[in-house]
């Protein structure tokens, strides 16, 4: 089976499942002619049905179809006839209650009693029909939700969805859409919690006497400069003034209780500290002379 056709069959069975409730394993009604044709083409009927329907299957055959195989003409060789019957016996028997009749019913009449016994044009038991009879497939197209399968030149083919089934699907989708619109337009009341009375019930509106605080929207104004790129202002007090303030703090002066301007004034009025002069040591040349320069003059 080609990939394109396989994808189409998978989507078709998914549509049948969503619309009409089909589920695996699919119940497949197989008629006598389908068994004969698949044996003639050397096809595995169960495997072919499983590939076509894209899922697990449960093949079934009616009592009338079994009787059709037993009633085959003598022109068919006995070994071939036996192969047909043995293959049919591997399928589940679907009781149609026509075995009490002297002659079996045709496939069309038998399927009418099984698929739609009340004539309501619905496939209540969700059967898939695998039949080589054109009249059976034509009748199935008039019943809502009946997938049909047949064999054509050793290839199993599934018919597209019939117009009756399509209209039923569209009607179901419209009904779901209306229900969705109705449910979305109605506001449900919140059920009261334990210990709360009817005064806490509300239908989605604001409770009486209470105002809900609305979030204020921030008004975006002009942005200021980057604080990292702005030059910092110079401090009024110098480093020396700060050192004087620290000394007063260590001594426990009461002037430190003054504001910064007072600290600055104290620092300005303080006497200037005298610079210490460094005394230079004598050099090595002068140390070598015993009496210094005066001794040199005496020798001369």
Secondary structure elements and pairings:
Elements: H1 3-20, E1 26-30, H2 32-40, H3 45-53, E2 57-62, H4 63-70, H5 78-89, E3 92-94, H6 107-115, E4 127-130, H7 134-141, E5 148-152, E6 155-158, H8 163-185, H9 239-251, H10 260-269, H11 284-288, H12 292-299
Parallel strand pairs: 1-2, 1-4, 2-3, 4-5
Antiparallel strand pairs: 5-6
Summarize the structure.
With 300 residues, this protein is α/β, with parallel strands linked by helices. It is 44% helix and 9% strand.
Characterize the structure shown.
The chain has 300 residues and is of the alpha/beta class. It is built from 12 helices and 6 strands. The protein has helices at residues 3-20, 32-40, 45-53, 63-70, 78-89, 107-115, 134-141, 163-185, 239-251, 260-269, 284-288, 292-299, and strands spanning 26-30, 57-62, 92-94, 127-130, 148-152, 155-158. It has a 6-stranded mixed sheet, sandwiched between helices. α7 (134-141) links the parallel β4 (127-130) and β5. It is elongated, with a radius of gyration of 53 Å. The N and C termini lie far apart (138 Å).
